[in-house]
Design brief:
heterodimer; A: 111 residues; mainly beta; 5-stranded mixed β-sheet; 4-stranded antiparallel β-sheet; 9 strands; 47% strand; B: mainly beta; 1 helix; globular
Chain lengths: 111, 118
């Protein structure tokens, strides 16, 4: 699976959009970008995934650059409950193996 | 309510004792996984199972054992051979494992069990 690079921490004001970047410059053509988050002392929560088109669901939007070397997870209206560590994971879909959680980005949403 | 349950949330054991962590899912998922997380670290795969009565070792299987007698259950036993068992243990499941495609490969996690060995 391709390696990802994320900033270690970010802040965001409550009600504003949180934009979390991820670099994956060595991504290959059949690798998807997955995002998970982990609130302290809880299990990771799946957020969204995509291949090359932008994706949106009830939790977030995923913007993938045209060359697929980077992506951004957008939480449109951050709340205090969005404070968590966010993980960007790149992997071949259907590989059925472990998710490679790196260090992620610790997002702090402030009042 | 569909989902993955792990019990108990907190578990304390004396050194040298075996302990079994429970993981149950009612999502009708074929694949199940056990991960371990240490403070400030990412998740590391212990064991995974693609189908009933079959399982494979992950990256750190030494000192652990599993069984998969039923589709909905994947218990993990931490044996006395595990050198540093104190950790946060996470169970996950997905509709399919290998060759399942994107949506069937997405892993969903339980709330975790925090094991402390005294």
């Amino acid at each position: 699976d391709a390696k990802t690079t994320q900033p270690p921490s970010m802040d965001c004001a409550e009600g504003r959009a949180a934009n979390l970047p991820c670099n994956h410059s060595t991504i290959s053509g059949n690798e998807y970008v997955y995002w998970y988050r982990q609130i302290h002392s809880q299990g990771p929560q799946y957020i969204i995934h995509g291949l090359k088109n932008n994706e949106t669901n009830e939790m977030a939007s995923l913007i993938i650059t045209e060359d697929r070397k980077s992506s951004t997870l957008i939480l449109p209206h951050a709340t205090l409950r969005d404070t968590a560590v966010y993980y960007c994971i790149v992997r071949v879909a259907g590989s059925g193996y472990a998710l490679n959680f790196g260090k992620g980005t610790s997002l702090l949403v402030t009042p | 309510d569909g989902g993955i349950t792990q019990s108990p949330k907190y578990l304390f054991r004396k050194e040298g004792q075996n302990v079994t962590l429970s993981c149950e899912q009612n999502l009708n998922h074929d694949a199940m996984y056990w991960y371990r997380q240490d403070p400030g670290q990412g998740l590391r795969l212990i064991y995974y199972s693609q189908i009933v009565n079959d399982f494979q070792k992950g990256d750190i299987a030494e000192g652990y054992s599993v069984s998969r007698e039923k589709k909905e259950s994947f218990p993990l036993t931490v044996t006395s051979a595990q050198k540093n068992p104190t950790a946060f243990y996470l169970c996950a499941s997905s509709i399919r494992g290998l060759a399942g495609g994107t949506s069937t490969d997405t892993q969903y996690f339980g709330p975790g069990t925090r094991l402390t060995v005294l």
